[in-house]
Specification:
alpha/beta; 7 strands; Rossmann fold
Length: about 230
């Protein structure tokens, strides 16, 4: 699918999903699969940093970062998502823009950190989006990426490609993404998994990294832009 058509289709689909997402986002960030992300990310941030929430959806994750004292800009390809985000709260320290992750409307080295949770998978060219994150990050800036793991149900959005059909979900395995970012200006400084309830967490700590990642619903990377 041509990039321009991909962009339009992603925007359309997430506009259509905005109501469903809005009904579930608070629970995901407070109690569900995203509840551990911001506490994990905070270990690597300094107070009052400027943070970009890349693929912010209805802005609940941005709002959580704002509550922690950060200056936050949320961007999303969906106009409907951005409108819902603005309804929750928009202030001097928290604001939103409709934008494509592959063509961000910011100057180089604007942000100290970027958070991108389950958003790079929806870009036509994930490497281009990664390079955009690098461009707008300051030297030694932090990039937090939540990537769908092998057990994640939403990966089914890419399934129809096996029939030769156009899809707009560019799934990657965690180890593929890790190699990609390491080859393109980032170092991996930490990571943690989000697992389904059937996984015995008491055993996970003894597994090598590739097995931990293989069982995940989502793997959360903490990356540093090389200075």
């Amino acid at each position: 699918m041509e990039n321009n058509n991909w962009h339009k289709e992603v925007e359309k689909q997430w506009d259509n999903r905005a109501n469903f997402w809005n009904q579930n986002s608070e629970n995901m960030w407070e109690k569900g699969s995203r509840s551990t992300i911001i506490p994990f990310l905070k270990r690597y941030l300094q107070p009052e940093m400027n943070i970009l929430d890349a693929g912010c959806g209805d802005g609940y994750g941005s709002y959580k970062l704002y509550q922690e004292g950060f200056n936050v800009t949320g961007v999303d390809i969906s106009k409907e998502m951005i409108e819902r985000a603005k309804l929750r709260l928009e202030s001097k320290r928290l604001h939103y823009k409709q934008a494509d992750l592959s063509d961000l409307p910011f100057d180089a080295e604007t942000f100290s950190a970027v958070m991108a949770i389950n958003s790079l998978e929806w870009t036509a060219n994930p490497l281009k989006a990664i390079n955009e994150c690098s461009r707008i990050l300051k030297p030694n800036g932090i990039l937090c990426v939540g990537l769908l793991g092998p057990t994640a149900g939403p990966r089914q959005n890419a399934y129809r490609r096996l029939y030769g059909e156009d899809v707009i979900c560019n799934t990657m395995m965690p180890w593929e993404f890790q190699q990609l970012v390491m080859e393109n200006g980032f170092e991996v400084i930490d990571g943690q998994g989000v697992y389904k309830n059937a996984v015995d967490l008491s055993k996970i700590n003894h597994y090598p990294l590739e097995l931990k990642q293989a069982l995940t619903f989502m793997w959360v990377f903490i990356l540093k832009k090389k200075g």
